[in-house]
Amino acid sequence: MIKVKNLEKTYVTKDIRTPVLRGIDLEVAEGEFLGIMGKSGAGKSTLMYQLSLLDHPSAGEIIIGGVNTEALSMSERTAMRLTELGYVFQDYALIPELTAIENIMVPLLMQNAPRPEAVTLSERVLKRVGLDHRKDNKPSQLSGGEQQRVAVARAVAHNPKILFADEPTANLDTASGNSVIELFKELNRGGQTIVMVTHEDEYAKYCNRIIHLEDGKIVKVIEQKV
Amino acid sequence: MKKNGGVIKSWNNFKVGWFLAVRQIKGSSRWTTGLIIFIMVLTYLNMVVISGILVGLIEGGSRANREQYTGDIIITVLPGESEIKHTAEIEETLKAMPVVLDLSVRYAEGAEIEANYRTRRDFSEVRDTAGAQIVGLDFAEEEKLSRLSHYVDEGENLKQDETGYILIGKNLLHRYSEAFGDIFASLDGVYPGDRVRVSLQGKTKEFVVKGIINSKVDQTSLRAFITREDFFRLVDRPSLNASEIAIRLAPRAVPERVKADLLSLGFGDYGRVKTALEAIPEFLNQIKIAFSLLGNVIGLIGIAVASITIFIVIFINAVTRRKYIGIMKGIGISERSIEISYVLQSLFYAVLGGVLGIFLVYALLVPAFLAHPLNFPFSDGILVAPVPSAAIKFTLLLIVTVLAGFIPARMIVKKNTLDSILGR
User: Fold this and answer.
1) Rounded to whole angstroms, how far apart are CA atoms A218 and A211?
2) Closest Cα of chain A to B353: distance in Å?
3) Domain assignment present for A173
4) Which helix (H) or strand (E) holds B103?
5) Which of A61, A175, A217, B172 is 20–30 Å from B275 (CA)?
6) Is B52 exposed, middle or buried (0-12, 13-18, 19+ CB in 10 A)?
């Protein structure tokens, strides 16, 4: 599903070069639930930004579904993010003036789904995350856990090949965090490939495989049965 | 096929842009939205009303000139001639033309009017006189053409069968013309019932002032009017040929076309045939052009202010929402859709402001100015807002607003997606 070859990312500010990723080689299989862990500054989020095409690496290749993403134009990368990837951000990242269902509908409409179909699909996925009764609420009217579940619903509504999640439980209380992780597990059981950055061991235990980053390198890989 | 795909993509971008724009507008503060729309209304009014009033000052004068003096077409004496030859035949032909509603055949001569001669005790004093044109009229036909009686401010209008009476234009009287300084030689203290002497061609006749005509049209306010019969008693004219013939046309008649018809009938050999527009003094046309330019400059300043306002509003909106713009881009919403959403928001403000402005102009201001014109010394100023010009200004407002909305949106949307999401 994802092949990463010798991935490097260096931030350059004036004359200061800060290497964050140093030669990452990685493969993510279809249906895998991969956890990325590491201390603060280890490069976890940076790696995910590269994998999820939100940023360009300084060197190396990222191949998703057989496509070398570095060869894609800006609009092709945007189209790939829209159709093949899904995102769950740490701070939910819902559009404040849109209701829960509208937040889910926007990417579907962007994919040219007819409006009734987008509504039906969004309602279905909201029901799946247990928030169909909150569909007309705006983010400000939802709790953090509910917002994150809406974000998950938005990320998976279009059935992406890969779901990326950047510390999705970081801003949630334990109960809400658990419900989001349970949701991820359920999705993964259904065959959804998930790449999740986390620093919490109790949530990492749900992953099939965990890679530990340190100073921009993979220092440990843990395979586990879930 | 590719072209078709492009169209679908563009339509999809528009649909998503629309979806986002509607919700952003709904979600924005009503006060802010109201304020922006109010600015747009003021901008549109500034574009249309300022130039409209400036032009209207002159247009009001032109309209009054047409209504009170020239009619739609006027035939005057050819240069070097003293009368319109074949007046009777011309009059007969005109009356037979279906497009001619009314006409007034006028006879005019330069004369001297003297007042206060009865109370003048010291004959070494300068006589109280004023030079003026004396015009002989058929008051019935003049009334149809120019509604002269409406402008009789003091006293009464003259009737056709009355003799020995005169109507005097207000600018021949000191109490009306003093506002103009000394540019008019004027008569002191002449009121209805007073007697004046009219002298021309060596003959003098006394008239009783029947009324004072208060008009802002010089051709009316600087003349004195008597009946046609009195005129011919006073003036030695070898013929009944007139000095001017004012013609009122049917409402849908085109003056230029009728003028061409009259010229083709040979009227041009006996008199100068001019439309009301051509009969306006050239300086008035020059002022009209200058005022129009001035109004447009003021309007352009207004539109610049409005475009800056929209720019700032959209820019601040986009900057404060930069994170969400980044997220939208991150989840695959096209840049074009996001830009369209901002452009549509700008358009919403401009369309609503413009439509409200149009409503105010045509439903309120134009009728109000017509009912209560601005009182200027040389005209009754009205608001001139021709529909094509108002439409062009509305379009201009939309175009400028679209640009003012697009540029800041583009500036923010173009920023790096990840930097926007992370607020870097």
Assistant:
1) 6
2) 24
3) yes
4) strand B100-115
5) B172
6) buried
pLDDT band, very low/low/confident/very high, at B384 (cuts 50, 70, 90) = confident
Nearest chain B residue (CA) to A99: B23
- Where do we find the tokens 């404040």? A96
CATH number at residue A98: 3.40.50.300
Determine whether B139 is exposed, middle or buried from the number of CB atoms within 10 Å of its CB (0-12, 13-18, 19+). buried
CA separation, residue B279 to residues B24, B72, B213, B292, B379 (Å):
57, 10, 22, 20, 16
Q: How many CA atoms lie within 13 A of A181 on its CB side?
A: 23
For chain A, the farthest-separated pair of C-alpha atoms sits apart, in whole angstroms, at 54
How far does B354 lie from chain A, in Å, by closest CA?
A: 26
Closest-approach residue (CA) in chain B for A82: B332
DSSP lists the bridge partners of residue B196 as: B207
Task: Determine the distance in angstroms separating the CA of A106 from the nearest CA of chain B, rounded to an integer.
Answer: 7
Cα(A164)–Cα(B74) distance, rounded to whole angstroms?
A: 85
pTM: 0.75
Find the CB nearest B418 among A55, A80, A107.
A55
CB contact (8 A) between residue A54 and residue B26? no
Distance CA B152, CA B168 (A): 9
Single-letter amino acid, residue B114: E
Q: Do the Cβ atoms of A97 and A105 come closer than 8 Å?
A: no
CB contact under 8 A, B12 and A109: yes
**Which residues does chain A have within 8 Å of residue B331's beta carbon, measured at their own beta carbons?**
81-82, 86-87, 106-107, 154-155
B335 vs A contacts (CB less than 8 Å): 78
In a domain, A164, yes or no: yes
A52 CB neighbour count, 10 Å cutoff: 25
Does residue B15 belong to the interface with chain A, where contact is any CB pair within 8 Å? yes
Contact B337 A97 (CB under 8 A): no
Query: Closest Cα to residue A184, out of A167, A163, A198?
Result: A163
Q: Chain B partners of A106 at a C-beta cutoff of 8 Å?
A: 16, 19-20, 328, 331, 333
pLDDT digits (tens, 9 = 90+) for B144-200: 999 999 999 899 999 888 899 999 998 888 888 766 656 666 788 889 999 999 998
Q: A178 lies in a domain? A: yes
Contact call for B24 and A97, based on CB within 8 A? yes
Put simply, the answer to whether A107 touches B19 (Cβ < 8 Å) is no
Q: Render pLDDT for A169-205 as a digit per residue (tens, 0 to 9).
A: 888 888 888 888 888 898 899 899 999 998 888 888 8
DSSP sequence for B307-337 = HHHHHHHHHHHHHHTHHHHHHHHHTT--HHH
CA atoms within 13 A on the CB side of A67: 14
- Would the CB atoms of A95 and B19 count as touching at under 8 Å? no
Q: Which domain holds residue A214?
A: 32-41+73-223
Classify residue A20: in a domain, yes or no: no
Tell me how many domains chain A contains.
Answer: 1
Segment holding A217, helix H or strand E: strand A217-223
The secondary structure element, H or E, covering residue B76 is strand B73-77
- Find out whether B255 and B209 touch, Cβ atoms under 8 Å: no
